[in-house]
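ingest -> fold -> write
write: protein_1
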Amino acid sequence: MQKTAGIHHITAMVNDAQRNIDFYAGVLGLRLVKKTINFDRPEVYHLYFGNETGLPGTVITFFPWAKQLKGRIGQGQVAVTSYVIPKGSVPFWENRLRKFGIEFTSTIRFGEKYLKFNDPDGLQLELTERNEGPTNSWNFGGVHTENAIKGFGGAVLYSAQPHKTTDVLENILGLDCIGQENEFLRFKSEGNVGNIIDIHLNPTVRGLMGAGTVHHIAWRAKDKEDLLKWNSLLQDKGYYPTEIRDRNYFKAVYFHEAGGILFEIATDPPGFSVDEPTDEFGKKLMLPAWLESQREELEETLPLVKVRVLEGDE
């Protein structure tokens, strides 16, 4: 059976691009690995944040658009994005969140402690310590390698039909169900990052797409051949996947699972160095070849943004 290694990336919607950069780069210490545009709506940025090289399983991406309405987290969505941090780094992150005036709470789930907080647009985030996962060598502001976010710990899904979402995770994506605790059902993939998925069995309200919500979650495919096999399997199972789409840094198919969540399956290659060297990541607006002729117009339309160390965080 085909099995995904886990989460490839998570994509969310927010209002303000600079505020988004200040939080994910400035506060959380992630690297802006790619500044590009939404290929389907070129007047909107597509910002990618991850570890130093943007490895699959570390990257969260955003469509920042000031005009979009506020969303509501609920059924049919990724409710919580979990990040994994090095063992012993919880006190550092508690102090850092306090430093920037970010309210947080602590909770225990499946024996793991989670620090739970929201980003400025209302996206629900959490940090948990684990030994597994690659060390993040990116240092920025007050965040250094010994405390830096490694990548995704996983995600919490709010499904309108949890048993059907379970079926996709187990019988399409190849995750293993490893336990239930209260209202959570836990699944694990083979990878060492982005590998823990919890389904909340009793979500209350229906989710509304908009700023402060996750647009989709993407799962890892080894390569295009692997993606083609999943595309065929999805068609056979009646999930009506899209055609394979070229996203420049990966190829992907999309489908809605029966619980209402938009799933994507994306290839690990070619990665973010396909159009610029690693040491130049995030500095320049990168455009696909078919939009390069519109560069001047797009640069005039898009707001000016920059990665900056926040005041007092030298």
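write: protein_2
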Amino acid sequence: MADTVIEADPGHEGSGHHGADHDGHEHHENLAHHFDSYEQQFDAGKLGIWLFLVTEVLFFGGLFCAYALYRNLRPEVFAGCSEFLNTKLGAINTGVLLFSSLTMAWGVRCAQLRQHKMLVGMLASTLSCASIFLGVKAIEYSHKWSMGLLPAGLYSYDPSHPHHTDSPNYLAYICAPFAIALIVVVAWLIVAKVKGDDFKVRVLMPLTVVFACFFVGVQLGTILESGEEHAAGDEHHVAAAHDGDHAEHEAHDGDGEHIVVDQPDTPVADKSELTGLEVLARDKSNLGARDSLEALATQEKVAEGTVLRGDQQPDHSPTEQRETDTPKQAGIFFSIYYCMTGVHAIHILAGMGVLIWLLVRAVRADFNENYFGPVDYVGLYWHLVDLIWIYLFPLLYLIG
């Protein structure tokens, strides 16, 4: 009987030990009941996030294919319309996103080392970079919308009147949700401090900085956008002054003998008509006006009896086939631009939502060397979002 008890005790102890493990397994908040170990849980989650990222690559791949197709069909339209994009704003956003990838990767390491305060700081830094990115993008979008640089069907840009005075304040509409969120977070923070809720205070303080950074991005974008406009205006003024000096020099040069210093590309007859066409032709995307100038130059040479070379023979094809419908073609470019950058901005917003969830859990000190999967998974998603922008920036802003 004693032997039976002794034999039963080890079995009981083993069963009790297994039961304790089982109970610990069931009641552990970070290990799901259908996984046997943290390693198995992490590998399963890693596989799932990679499958999700593959679908994201396929989704954006379709957009890149549309870009390549339309650019191959109308390279001159894409080259002209890209002049409306501010490369400084795009470069700033590129740097901001690259820095956010650094802080996100650093955050994963902090989660593994149980550096909870540093993890909160890294997540808040990543969120702040995302807010700055969206603030700069708000300036880009509102500026183009006010000029009528809209998708196909809504495109209404007029080179003679680039800024519509009757256009609504698009920037106020974009900033309104972030302003409301900032006010709510600040009010909630004040209430939490009054009540002495330390947990909420530690969560809401970094979120206050995050939403305030959106307006930092707006201010930064405003400075860069206004500087670009002044530079363009100065360049236009210098070009106009140079044209005037050239015309005056040609009119007064020579003593009894007509000397042509620089033969103009366009005929000088019918000044009123040419002036209007030249103004329109300065817009590189307005290929119809440029074709009209070339046609008038050819007619002038034919009228003067000038023998034209083979490559200078006038084109008698119907004008409907030669002229480019600028609103339609430029609208296609901006349709692709808003689609690609807009979908990317939506992914930024989605990533911010998940990062806020991680921030709350980091304040709660949920992550450790055994359980850091959620931070790593969101980090992979964030790196993909940054990588997509690395392709968008040169394709839309630099290749002209």
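write: annotation protein_2
The two ends are 93 Å apart (CA to CA).
Confidence is low (pLDDT under 50) at residues 1-26, 230-277, 316-325.
pipeline exit 0
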